[in-house]
Amino acid sequence: MKAIEVIDDLRRRFPNEPEYIQAVEEVLTSIEETYNAHPEFERYNLIERLCIPDRIFSFRVSWVDDSGRVRTNMGYRIQHNNAIGPYKGGIRFHSSVNQSILKFLAFEQTFKNSLTTLAMGGAKGGSDFSPRGKSDMEVMRFCQAFIAELWRQIGPDTDVPAGDIGVGGREVGYMYGYYKKMAREFTGTFTGKGREFGGSLIRPEATGFGNCYFLLNMLATRNIDIKGKRVAISGSGNVATYTALKLMQLGAKVVSMSDSDGSIYAPEGLSDTELQFIFELKNVMRGRIREAAEEFPATIEYRAGERPWQFAKCDIAMPSATQNELDGDDARALLAQGVIAVSEGANMPSTPEAVKEFLNARILYAPGKAANAGGVAVSGLEMAQNSQKLSWSAEEVDRKLRDIMSRIHSSCVEFGTEADGFVNYVKGANVAGFMKVARAMMAQGVV
Ligand code: NDP
After folding, report:
1. Is 103 a catalytic residue?
2. Label partner for 143 (CA 20 to 30 A): which of 12, 160, 163, 290?
């Protein structure tokens, strides 16, 4: 396989899907050597079968807003690969959602889920519906209309969705409620459910906490203590807020957060009270991050329209908002101020140019598919609890999450350590994730 030829062919066949091509390119260039060491992979054309999703559902979602107007959105589910377990991956509701973005996310999810060591294939879904500014009833009607179309394609052993951008506990609850009505069964078809109806303890915290555990593993390889380190975070949603909480518990200073309108900067680090306010602002009041600076003007400043990377003084960056939110200039700005580690909470937040900068500078750089895998790992634990009809304590789930993140880190070290001892976590994560899926696909024949 010549990675460049496969990528050119995909670019020709899917010319309007830049995010999908970007994700494929990153993986193929780093697994090329390993792939070519196994001629049997090429005989089975494994690479094309791994890059192109098993199937894609796309559908119209019609719903009625509070003023009685009939609205339409697009809905999608990409079932990418189920060689090692049922399709598994979140649902994203955001105005930017399109097939390219969901295909990139489903592709990434396949490798990420493989890395967790749990039995989960890769999928992703979503809609260009934005919950922002919608009433609870509008969100509920939309979720019901979305599931009215999708429910036949998902199930506890078929395809298990979860949350992502714009889909939190509220949306999962509404979707699961309608799924349950249509399917007439109470099973673990969604993860990230409420605790009263099968949700796992620690699932809301899992992606952010898991990213911090991964970061601790990386810092340990260079004997660096997290205490007192200044960390710039982007985003202020599920992943960003729980990353901030764990970092502060570990004694680090969280100096920034953001949303799509701008960033806040707290040069001395957020206090517990300030972070608590942000939790309520985002989850209860559903407000904007700007309001945190308005509430605490003495300690927090607001930068409209800016991302944290160019101005927040920090030792570590944890981008936790969305794809391609940190570009080459941002990477150079971070490196110029001596950043030692970047650990990605979001999926593909760094552009290819930024990734190159981080790798060339030989800092600790963890791609999202390794660092943010804690979310789906605890989703896998939620599936296990649901199928046994029991629930584990928070301590037990947290312990399992720590173990899984350590194992993912070890896999990255095993497959990504270069001749001079530098750990290329991008290569490590891609090769480790790929090999398991590849072996399973080989064993199952051409299907
Ligand atoms: P949320 O919807 O809870 O939060 C998203 C945050 O990112 C918000 O602050 C949002 O701001 C901001 N944001 C979204 N889109 C953009 C944009 N185009 N430009 C700037 N800011 C933006 O989502 P999550 O926290 O769940 O997800 C964040 C990232 O983490 C995503 O990349 C997701 O795929 C990834 N992830 C999530 C997992 C999970 O368990 N939830 C698991 C693994 C990865 P605003 O409110 O203005 O839109």
Report:
1. no
2. 290
Q: 353-383 as b/e, with b when 16 or more CB fall inside 10 Å?
A: ebbebbeeeebbbbbbbbbbbbbbbbbbbbb
Measuring from atom 43 of ligand 1, which residue has the nearest CA? 372
The matching CATH number, chosen from 3.80.30.20, 3.40.50.720, 3.90.79.10, 3.30.70.260, for 206-366 is 3.40.50.720
Task: Select from 238, 263, 278, 286 the residue to mutate for testing ligand 1; criterion: most ligand atoms less than 8 Å from CB.
Answer: 238
Q: What is the DSSP letter of 66?
A: T
Query: Which residue's CA is the closest to the ligand 1 atom numbered 5?
Result: 237
Q: What is the pLDDT of residue 202?
A: 98
Asked if the model's pLDDT at residue 1 lies above 90, the reply is: no
The third-level CATH classification (topology) of the domain covering 3-185 is Rossmann fold (3.40.50)
pTM above 0.90, yes or no: yes
Q: What is the mean pLDDT of residues 337-355?
A: 98
Pocket of ligand 1 (CB under 6 A): 94, 96, 163-166, 168, 207, 235-240, 259-261, 320-322, 325, 345-347, 372, 375
**pLDDT (tens digit per residue) in 194-241:** 999 999 999 999 999 999 999 999 999 999 999 999 999 999 999 999
Instruction: Point out the ligand 1 atom lying closest to the alpha carbon of residue 235.
Output: 9
pLDDT higher at 283 or 333: 333
Q: CATH 3.40.50.10860 in the chain, residues? A: 3-185
Given 88, 124, 282, 427, the catalytic residue? 124
- What separation in Å is there between the alpha carbon of 297 and the centre of ligand 1? 25
Q: Would you call 263 helix, strand, or coil by DSSP?
A: strand
